[in-house]
């Protein structure tokens, strides 16, 4: 189980949930391959995907440096 802790208005809450990370990635790849094979658009466009990757990289950098990274 994964545990997520968040703080909102100075109140901490922790939630536990179960998911298979590998399955998430495999499902995304299957979706992409089907879209390519059927000449269809994916759920998100390349700009939105790029923004998601940029955000994930900033979050990773922020965690490593233990400070907020804006860009």
Descriptors:
single chain, 71 residues, alpha+beta, two-stranded antiparallel sheet, 2 helices, 52% helix, 20% strand, extended
Overview of the structural elements:
- With about 70 residues, the protein is an alpha+beta fold.
- About 50% of the residues lie in helices and about 20% in strands.
- Strands 1-2 form a two-stranded antiparallel ribbon.
- The mean pLDDT is about 85.
Whole-angstrom Rg: 16 Å
Structural class: alpha+beta
> Helicity range of the residues?
40-55%
Strand line-up of the largest beta sheet: 1-2
Number of strands: 2
Overall mean pLDDT = 84
Provide the low-confidence segments as ranges: none
Shape: extended
Give a short overview.
By secondary structure, the chain is an alpha+beta fold. The protein is built from 2 helices and 2 strands. A two-stranded antiparallel ribbon has the order 1-2.
